[in-house]
Amino acid sequence: MHMASAKLPPRQKMIGMMYLVLTALMALNVSKEILNSFIVVNTGLEMTQKSFTHNNSQLYSEFDQLNLYDPKRVYPNWKKAQEAKQLTAEMATYLVEIKRRLIRETEGFKHKEEDTVHLGRVKNIDDFDTPTRIMVGAEEDGSKGIGRELKEKLNDYKQKMLSLLDEQDRKNVHFTIDTRNPLRTGDESSKNWELNNFFHTPLAAAITILSKFETDTKNAESEVVEHLLARSSGETIPSDTVAAKVVSESNYVLLGEKYKADVFIAAFNKTLKTEVLAGDYNPLTKLFVGKVDSVPVTKGMGRYASLTSSEGIKKVKGVIRMLTPKGKLFEYPYESEYIVARPALTVSAEKMNILYAGLLNPISVSVPGISNDKLSISIDNGQLIEKGNGKFDVKGPKSGLSRVTVIALMENGERRAMGQIEFRVKDLPVPSPMIGTMTSGGTMKKATLAAQQFIDCHYDNFEFDAKAHVVSYDFISCAGVIAQTDHKQGSKIDDAMQRIIRKAKSGDQFTFENIKAIGADGKVVKLNSITIRVN
Questions:
Q1: Distance separating alpha carbons of residues 330 and 350, to the nearest angstrom
Q2: Longest C-alpha distance within the chain, in Å?
């Protein structure tokens, strides 16, 4: 990694040259054309900031990777790098707020329009009264303006950033943040840093100066993090092969759940001596408890295999040990899990996920590889009555949908969702009335009809053992053209009705209509009529 030396790096030279151009332009009798030049310089500085931000992000990413592999050695400097990031972000926020205020008060904005207005769209870029009032203030030495506060914050920022480095590295950094008072030139505006930068400075120049300080802080952040990273790099493991890898969160996924996996680039060394051990490894003591198995390694990759002998959730853990070319041993603990289940065959007919309102609906619940006592089953429509061995009755569901949710308690105490099954809940079908063996009407012998004592009802082709019974009906007797209707409670065909039937002539008909019954769900429903002609 290239580090700063006594000779300034090219990027710092560029920033310095831009600042010289800036101060030279300020010394001129500023015209609109020159003010437009400030806009160009400011745009260039903003682009430089984006470049610094991108480069710094790569430094932090490299730092994160080192800290992941060797936190004991890397973490102290990694933490300092995070402090550098925070200090720079706070300084950038402060500078941006000053720029926003300058534009807001110069343009007379009321509702934060300055957040969306580029400097090139600002009308009063030649206004120097507002920037002078804000940055310098009413005192001749500029001590009451924001410029004095800005200088103090920049000095504080530099000191805090330097404090993150050791003594040797402090000598090698070259921050471009310059808060020194200028050399006396006889001009009142050059008495101190604040007046030199912001007294009678037009808005375009003031914004550009602040953008330059933003770039300075990004540059300082880069230098500090580079030094810290160099102190942390130390000895690393060389890699000669890169491969795409997919590591899933679980090796068992139920239908309807999300399959989740990390997809990443893995770098490894095919020739470096690598040892992969499997067993109950403790990363703190760096010792194994119990049996240790050696995993075969081919071209830098271990191939783990274990014969399964029982169902359930199994864990595999251990450590990978690698010896660097210089003889340093690196250890990388690993841990994963998988589910062992018996081969299972599930056959289900389509459109059969149905429950019926008012019935006890039997269901079975099981998850391969997990015992029933580790399952928590709930339903959102109805009541579950446990019958044992994974079997339940669903009582009292209402028409609509009913969802059964299964949660498994894993060995590590984690509660893991195993899935959800949705049932349609239907009302019971309407029973069919029945007199003797007749359900839809027709011809019956008079003696057979007169011998019937009840109107019965039943569910046709229904898979549940559900019962319904008649509670009322109308009996209509028709002899020739004369008809008589009697309303009856209950299901009994009484003696009076039987006498009428026995007196009937061949061809007379009897109708049982307005038949009402209570179904297995407790609801009263109206059944079809039955008309019987006697012979």
A1: 56
A2: 140
Tokens of 53: 């931000």
Place of tokens 């004369």: 482
d(CA 88, CA 96): 12
Does domain 354-426 sit in CATH 2.60.40.10? yes
CA R_g for the chain: 44
Cα–Cα dist 199/140, whole Å: 10
d(Cα 59, Cα 65) in Å, to the nearest integer?
10
Phi first, then psi, for residue 76 (nearest 5°) are -55, -45
Domains in the chain: boundaries:
10-233, 241-340, 354-426, 432-534
pTM, to two decimals:
0.43
Q: Which residues touch 236 (CB under 8 Å, ≥6 apart)?
A: 66, 324
Task: Over range 528-535, report the average pLDDT.
Answer: 94
Closest CA to 519 of 430, 439, 444, 407: 430
Residue with tokens 């952040």: 221
Structure confidence by residue, pLDDT tens digits, 11-26: 556 655 665 555 555 5
Q: What letter represents residue 210's amino acid?
A: L
In degrees rounded to 5, what are phi and psi of residue 523? Answer: -95, 145
Name the residue with tokens 């760096």: 286
- Output the six-digit token pair for 235: 């000895």
d(CA 447, CA 436): 12
SS3 491: coil
> In sequence order, which residues have a C-beta less than 8 Å from that of residue 384 and are 6 or more positions away?
377, 378, 392, 393, 394, 395
Where do the DSSP E strands lie in 199-340?
241-248, 261-268, 274-282, 287-295, 297-298, 301-302, 312-323, 329-340
β-partners of residue 477 are 484, 510
Q: HEC string of 38-69?
A: HHHHHHHHHHHHHHHHHHHHHHHHHHHHHHHH
Q: Do the beta carbons of residue 452 and residue 435 sit within 8 Å?
A: yes
pLDDT band at 348 (very low <50, low <70, confident <90, very high): very low
